[in-house]
Amino acid sequence: MLVPSAAVSQMSRKQGATIGAFVVALGVILWTLVGGMRATDPARTERLLELLEDDNPEMRLAAAASLAAVDTPQVVQGLGVALGDPDRRVGASAAWALWRLGRRDMATQAFERSLVGEDQTARLAAVTALRRLEDRATATLLVRALGDRSPGVRTEAALGLIRINHQAGFDSLERSLSDLRPNHRVAAARALSHVDDPRAVTIARRQSQGDDVAAAALAEAVLLHWGEADGALPALTRALQSAPDAVRASVCDALGHLSSGGPPPAPLLAALAAGTLGASADVACKRAVGRMGSGARRD
């Protein structure tokens, strides 16, 4: 897996903690509704509606998702109110549930409001919910999100389109590999390395032949993820010497995978010894060397 910049790594840790809290909340709900209450369906629905107003946003988030299986006027009304929840993730989850219940007009309006707003958290939550729907009817909204100024939103939209086999998703990630902004290139490379489709490899091969050293190196890193290591070392070495720090962080991780099971490659050790890496690339390179268990770490 490609290593993002320090900022993206921190975001990933926060997302991991959030997902963990959501899983715990969902577990509490399932125990309450199935194991603890053993009540009739109306009673369980009423309890879920109560949880939509819980002080804990993780409980509200899990309750909104759970209500996607209950189609009653009370549920639709409750989810409609939840669209305006102060936690943008809850609002997006409510829109997702309404879409699943067939209330696409309500859901679409909510998604559209989020996608044009200034709140990046709301835009990302909306696109994530749209991706989870895996419905070709979401294509128009996801294509619109490809133009978002946030690399996270753009990448999530591209992955959503890829899930519904929409070519625009692949095209967007390929363009992002050549974006002038390093964080956009890194986000696209990370996304492509997790796409289970031969077109991802085709894009990486094409980009690896380009003139942009950083884009070529990221493409080589994607190919490494797919087990195509031939010829990758020169491009990765050049990027390690001259690319922006966010890109070099990904390159360090890719070089680590290139030498999996063997000693760290010389360019990786040379870069660490020179002390010229930025903060995120330095951390990524030390982590790569540590994974190899070589004892060659430089402090």
Beta-strand percentage? under 5%
Strand segment count: 0
Q: Please state the structural category.
A: mainly alpha
Number of helices: 17
What is the class of the domain at 19-133 in the CATH system? Mainly Alpha
Low-confidence stretches: 1-17, 31-40, 294-299
Shape: elongated
Any idea what the radius of gyration is? 22 Å
Could you explain how this protein is built, in words?
With 299 residues, this protein is mostly helical. It contains 17 helices and no strands. The chain has helices at 6-36, 41-51, 57-66, 73-82, 88-100, 104-115, 120-133, 139-145, 151-163, 167-177, 182-193, 198-208, 213-225, 232-242, 245-258, 266-274, 279-292. α5 (88-100) packs parallel to α7, α9 (151-163) packs parallel to α11 (182-193) and α15 packs parallel to α17.
